[in-house]
Amino acid sequence: MVSPTAKQVFIQGVTKDGRTFRPSDWAERLAGVMSSFRPGGATPGSHLSYSPWCVPNNINGIKCVVVHTDLRESEPMAWDFCMNFARDNGLQVVEACLLPDPPQST
């Protein structure tokens, strides 16, 4: 269960027993399915980019999907789809906050 104060959850590509989840492009597939769920709704061509509410990422060498909790408020069924995907596949889900990269010094 995700706490009501969390802003993001990470669905990690590691099962609860520590195995790497397959197929290797699972994060891109999940985020692709969720691409039409975005602030303001789907627009022509929105399927060509990821939704800001559901973005694939690689954190510390672990493939994951960062799901923003605004999705839960705007599209509860889409949120449930993501959480059920994680549960059905035994994936680890953690509450976290994705921090921006520090500015590059020149």
Question: How would you sum up this structure, described in words?
Answer:
This is DUF3579 domain-containing protein. Pfam families: DUF3579. The protein is of the alpha+beta class and 106 residues long. It has a single domain, classed as Alpha-Beta Plaits, CATH 3.30.70. 25% of the residues lie in helices and 25% in strands. The chain has a four-stranded antiparallel sheet.
The gyration radius over C-alpha positions equals 14 Å
How many helices? The count is 3
Strand element count: 4
CATH level 4 superfamily: Uncharacterised protein PF12112 family, DUF3579
Would you state the CATH class? Alpha Beta
Question: Which range does the strand content fall in?
Answer: 25-35%
CATH fold-level name? Alpha-Beta Plaits
Averaged pLDDT = 88
The gross shape turns out to be globular
Strand order of the largest sheet: 2-3-1-4
Helix/strand-derived category reads alpha+beta
How many separate domains? 1
Helical proportion, percent range:
10-25%
Largest sheet: 4 strands, antiparallel
Q: First CA to last CA: what distance?
A: 43 Å
CATH architecture: 2-Layer Sandwich
Secondary-structure blueprint:
Elements: E1 8-15, H1 26-33, E2 54-59, E3 62-68, H2 70-74, H3 76-88, E4 91-96
Antiparallel strand pairs: 1-3, 1-4, 2-3
Can you give keywords for this protein?
4 strands; 25% helix; 106 residues; alpha+beta; single chain; Alpha-Beta Plaits; 25% strand
Kindly summarize this structure in a few lines.
This protein is an alpha+beta fold. It is 25% helix and 25% strand. The protein is globular and about 40 Å long.
